[in-house]
Amino acid sequence: MSSSLRVLIHGGPHKSGTTSFQSLMASSRESLLEAGVFYPDCPNGQHAPILNTKSPSWENGALRAAVEAARAAGARTLLMSAEVVCSIGVNGFRRLANSLDDCDLAFVFVFRHWSTFLPSRWAQNSKRRDSQPLGTYVDRALAWDAHVDHRYDLVLRDCLEGASASVIALSFDWAVEEHGSVIPALVEALSLPAFLTNTAEGSRANATSDRDVIELVRLLNGAVADRLDLPQDDLFVCRGEHRQCATLFDAAGALGPMPAKHRGTLIELGRKTRMELTFDAGWRPTAADRLDGFADLFVNTKGGAIFPARPARKENYWALEWPEIADHPLLADPIERAVSSIKRKMPATALH
């Protein structure tokens, strides 16, 4: 048998500096390999095609190919990263671990305080698929006891139970407070080459885009899902159920040809419904007490606290729901463009 290979899997989640980390690792592949670290070449530097055990078609062939490629290259470490790993559930972690039983396996996760993570996660969902307002999303996430968007402890528990591997956790907030970026903390925690920190400071890939555009996209998502007879908020639901969302949208592209004047009219309608979501100073969900039980896995806490004290903060959002605007004449063309585009990408079996 080949000598044991160290396999590091960075499992996100989204909106915790993951895209910045992946971009840096992908652009540093040659230098990493010279230092004994193999980072597989995948689109956008992320390895969901290799690690997404939620996919019904997943098999371990690509994962084993990555292991053999790392060994053939003379690497001591195989490093992979995919945000989806944080939501694969205990069975998903078990499938990965069983496929890597001849390797020295470790997982790393970066968690961000809920008061900033939840709005960012909502924005990501809205850009890609979902239609619910921010306030509704936060209420639903916190009410769904086992949803990974607030039950960070379940990510760690499922990983420990399913993989029986080493698990490293990082506090995004402490890392940013100390370094201005999460990447130096990741580099240190994973014992990666120190030169990576030289280009990491201040890197912010995949930052949340214009909120008004996100609001328009989520409203368009609702109308599109209704036209295609697809469930609303399926990305949110699938994350809670450890399933793969079958159909992601690209509704933002359908808004592109819309004249600025028309877009402004719709934005003005949305802004009239603006509401405020307040996170009080020191706010933490009930799930925070459960996460405290895994504090020993976090390698960058201070004073025993997983996150720094948080000041009060507010988020503005539109309360406007998609059925209230789906028949607006200015949305007719974007809806048609989005529906046509999505139909072309969907398998025939998914269309009703």
Kindly describe this structure.
This protein has 352 residues and is α/β, with parallel strands linked by helices. Helices cover 44% and strands 11% of the residues. It has 16 helices and seven strands. The strands form two sheets. The chain has a five-stranded parallel beta sheet, sandwiched between helices. Helix 5 runs parallel beside helix 8, helix 6 crosses helix 11 and helix 11 packs across helix 14. The termini are far apart.
How does the SSE layout of this entry go?
Blueprint lengths: L4 E6 L7 H10 L1 H6 L2 E2 L9 H4 L9 H12 L4 E5 L7 H11 L3 E9 L2 H15 L5 H10 L8 H12 L2 E6 H8 L3 H7 L21 H17 L6 H8 L9 H5 L4 H12 L2 E6 L7 H5 L21 E6 L13 H14 L7
Parallel strand pairs: 1-3, 1-4, 2-3, 4-5
Antiparallel strand pairs: 6-7
Helix pairs in contact: 5-8, 6-11, 11-14, 11-16
List keywords for this structure.
352 residues; alpha/beta; five-stranded parallel β-sheet; two-stranded antiparallel ribbon; 16 helices; 7 strands; 11% strand
